[in-house]
Amino acid sequence: MKNFERASVLSEALPYIRAFSKKTVVVKYDNNAMQTEELKRAAISDIVLLSLVGVRVVVVHGDGSEINSALKSMGNEPKFINDLRYTDEVTMNLVQMLLTGKIGKDIVSLISSEGGKAFGFSGLDGSSITAEKLKGDVDYGLIGEIKTINTELINVALDNGYIPVISTIAEGIDANTSYNLNADTTAAELAVSLGAEKLILLTDKCGICSDARDESSLISELPLSQVRPLIKKGVISGEMIRKVDCCAKAVRRGVSRAHILDGRLSHSILVEMLTDSGIGTMILAD
To answer: Is the pTM of this model over 0.90?
Structure first.
């Protein structure tokens, strides 16, 4: 890229940097979407850059693939019910160990290597997130439904220039146990509690398409009034229903915009936030 092209790119980004400075953005980081080290580093560098120009970035993570691999290595087959991981005590111990230990620390380390400052913790720290056992027609085991969020630790980290990296483990208030939380749901609830400007879910899809087999049919903007009709038509299906529902609930409760982005594309976060073109599917109020 020639110097004048670089200057043009920076000029285009300036109004967006000004608009988002001191605003909060919650990013659900998904290792399943960024399957190469290059893509992971690109996503992390996007997050660090946003933080350095004054955006208050909060990272929420799970990691189903590492948990699945660990369970299989122990001779346990992962089990899912309605796209939620059935979590018995053995699985809960493993999830807590991996998310709050290895996976969370790996993300913190990546942020540090890209020149950012990060602070990793889970919902257990300072009782930041409390939950009760998720109730339904079936037993999900130790899957939690969020009841309260205390943003004090998150805001302390943000106010001191750190990027909070949050593992999706909650403190049980109905039993002496920890609960496993869905990462998309947790990101959405945190976005609401923090009064976030944006919620960004990184996925392994380009977004929502009117034809699932044709990425050129991407729906760039999805008003809330169209969410339920598209689910009924089957345009939004499978695990994407939960992601879209999380985004829709966040927007209904005050988050300005929610985005489903393709984590397989390098620097998709910056393209969405700091350019005129944008990327993925944006869910917004009517």
So the answer is: yes
